[in-house]
Specification:
- By secondary structure, the protein is α/β, with parallel strands linked by helices.
- Helix content is 48%, strand content 12%.
- The chain has 24 helices and 16 strands.
- It has helices at 7-24, 29-44, 53-66, 72-87, 93-105, 111-126, 130-158, 168-192, 196-199, 206-212, 249-261, 274-285, 289-293, 331-334, 343-352, 372-378, 383-391, 396-408, 424-429, 476-479, 508-516, 530-545, 550-564, 571-574; strands spanning 217-223, 231-236, 239-244, 297-301, 337-339, 359-365, 416-418, 435-441, 444-445, 457-459, 473-475, 488-492, 521-524, 528-529, 577-580, 598-599.
- A 6-stranded mixed β-sheet has the order 7-6-8-12-13-15, with helices on both faces. Strands 3-2-1-4-5 form a 5-stranded mixed β-sheet.
- Helix 6 packs antiparallel against helix 7.
- It is globular and about 65 Å long.
- The N and C termini lie far apart (51 Å).
Length: 600
């Protein structure tokens, strides 16, 4: 209607719709969606940014109360309005930029963020008070019932007059009951776990982020929208800065694809696209480069296809040649880089504090190759999947990696299960909560690579006498049942971060480990060479054993490989690793194995 010139009619319709929703279903998702539509209509009609603020504030409040996100396209008019009004001067530009920062996070209110928040709450409250865990579970069930009813009402309003299904009045009555139950559940949780409300927020304020950052640390939160160039927020102690991203979402995705094309095979056979990596750095950070230059540590909350790329791979200065890695200055050369799914994830995980587990480490890996007969019986209707599963090679470097890791962290070799002993059942029986670091060195499988596997999985050995290999797949659903109190989980396996198909967030496997109680994950973004992975992980743990935090230790290990081993200087070998989460706090391999088997 707005594009056809009927702006007044559209605006009046939106206002009436919003009022009707407010009366029938206060603070509902349909009401929030209506407000966002009103904001978009006013923007398209040429209204000044300041005119959108009251509508946008109401929409943000509703979505935060519901703990629901929305699409980047829907929230984009509000983010633009807050930023443009804040950058226009006035008495409170920082407060408006803070509102823009919070609104932008609603486009990142994904499954990962929710799972991290729930795990953080369980870690913080459940161990001290078992009643808190049950109260939190009942609260989550009440919220799910209420959200389902909101969706039912939205669908029923569209189908009104068709004479099928419950009436709007009947659904409204159910909503009233569910709202009361949800309110009671909130009160019950607040009584047994007073800090829960702060832990489960899917949106973090700028003040909360500032309080969570370490000295010299800066958070870069990326907001991409399909409709227009997005924004990048830099938050550090006492200051928020916002810069316009120099490309739209499609152009950013194209640059990510160009960079990945030169590294994702994992063998260094393709030239690195240094020009694309520098262009991507420029479109993201050029507007705020001076503020980033004096930072000592970078935490990134990416979005879109940027989730599939470790930011340490970006090129800070113009490279000597468009193609190749010699003489290139990477962002990782200057400072350690960690990643979080959203700013609220950093706040929640840092609030939890370090692991209270008594043991330093436990490792799993180096599975036996899957026998062909068992692999074939796993996928009887798709023999090609069985062939691919049976073709995965042994990983001798993984065995070495786990042995060296145990030595570096001062634990017994008995604290690991490898070869035939590394089965899915054995992992389930292990007391994982007793260990601060849990380490997997094995093959990682993604559905796009093994189409018969419906979700991401780690590969274990097949149990003796098993009819097929299905039980050897540690899927995301299996991991969700783990009970962890881990500072870090090391997933030294191919594509454990999701690869090019990361999409909205980390892979289901990474999400599952967060939900199970991991504070940080070491993941890979493409195929990794077995021997290179052994060296990187061992040197990272060596640094951890000497008092470095995991982010700095991982950076040192990656730069060692890039600078000191000529055959592994290509970023395909060293840049695949990324730390997701704040990282474990303050735990060399001299062997230089010939590059060989690939994990994946």
């Amino acid at each position: 209607a707005a594009s056809a010139g009927n702006v007044g009619g559209a605006e009046g319709s939106f206002a009436r719709s919003a009022a009707r929703f407010a009366r029938a279903v206060p603070r509902s998702r349909p009401y929030a969606d209506t407000l966002l539509l009103r904001a978009a209509a006013q923007r398209d009609a040429g209204s000044p940014a300041a005119a959108l603020l009251s509508i946008c504030r109401e929409a943000v409040v509703v979505l935060r109360e519901l703990r629901e996100g929305t699409s980047a396209a829907a929230i984009s008019p509000c983010v633009d309005a807050f930023v443009q009004t804040g950058q226009g001067g006035g008495s409170a530009p920082q407060s408006l930029l803070a509102e823009a920062f919070e609104a932008s996070q609603l486009a990142q209110g994904n499954v990962t963020t929710t799972q991290i928040a729930r795990a953080a709450a369980r870690l913080a409250e459940g161990s001290r008070n078992p009643a808190a865990s049950e109260a939190i579970r009942q609260r989550e069930e009440a919220k799910r019932r209420l959200m389902a009813l909101y969706r039912d009402r939205d669908e029923a309003s569209v189908a009104a007059g068709r004479g099928a299904g419950p009436t709007l009045a009947e659904i409204d009555a159910q909503i009233a009951v569910a709202q009361a139950e949800a309110a009671d559940a909130d009160l019950a949780v607040q009584a047994v776990a007073p800090g829960f409300a702060q832990l489960v927020q899917s949106v973090a304020s700028a003040e909360e982020v500032m309080a969570s950052l370490r000295p010299g640390e800066v958070l870069a939160s990326v907001f991409l929208s399909p409709a227009s160039p997005g924004w990048i927020f830099l938050v550090r102690e006492g200051d928020i800065a916002v810069g316009r991203i120099g490309a739209d979402e499609a152009e950013v995705s194209a640059l990510v694809a160009r960079v990945r094309a030169g590294v994702e095979d994992g063998d260094g056979s393709k030239p690195f696209d240094a020009a694309a990596a520098h262009q991507l750095y420029t479109v993201l950070f050029a507007a705020l480069a001076p503020r980033l230059a004096d930072s000592e540590r970078l935490v990134v909350a990416p979005s879109g296809q940027l989730l599939s790329l470790p930011f340490g791979l970006l090129v800070e200065v113009p490279p000597p040649a468009p193609s190749g890695h010699e003489g290139v200055r990477f962002l990782l050369d200057r400072l350690p880089v960690t990643h979080v799914p959203a700013p609220a994830s950093l706040v929640a995980l840092r609030r939890v504090g370090p692991s209270q587990a008594a043991q330093p480490w436990f490792g799993f890996g180096a599975p036996n190759p899957v026998p062909f007969a068992q692999a074939a019986r796993t996928f009887p209707s798709a023999p090609e999947c069985g062939q691919l599963l049976a073709a995965l090679p042994a990983l001798p470097g993984a065995n070495l990696e786990l042995r060296v890791s145990a030595q570096l962290l001062g634990t017994s070799p008995a604290n690991s299960l490898t070869g035939a002993a590394f089965t899915a059942d054995a992992v389930r029986r292990a007391h994982l909560r007793d260990h601060r670091i849990v380490h997997f060195a094995t093959h990682g499988l993604l559905p796009r690579e093994l189409s018969c596997v419906p979700e991401a999985a780690l590969l274990a050995s097949v149990s003796p006498g098993a009819p097929n290999a299905a039980g050897a797949l540690l899927t995301a659903a299996t991991v969700m049942d783990f009970d962890l109190d881990a500072d870090a989980v090391l997933l030294s396996a191919c594509n454990s971060g999701g690869g090019a198909a990361a999409g909205e967030s980390l892979s289901g496997l990474a999400r599952a480990f967060f939900y199970a109680g991991a504070r940080s994950l070491l993941v890979t973004h493409w195929y990794v060479d077995d021997a290179a992975a052994t060296r990187v992980v061992a040197l990272a743990l060596h640094g951890l054993s000497r008092g470095e935090d995991l982010a700095e230790a991982l950076r040192a290990a990656q730069l060692d490989l890039a600078r000191n081993i000529p055959e592994w200087g290509h970023p395909a070998f060293w840049a695949a690793f990324a730390l997701v989460g704040p990282g474990a706090g303050p735990a060399p391999v001299s062997a230089r194995a010939v590059p060989g088997q690939v994990r994946g």
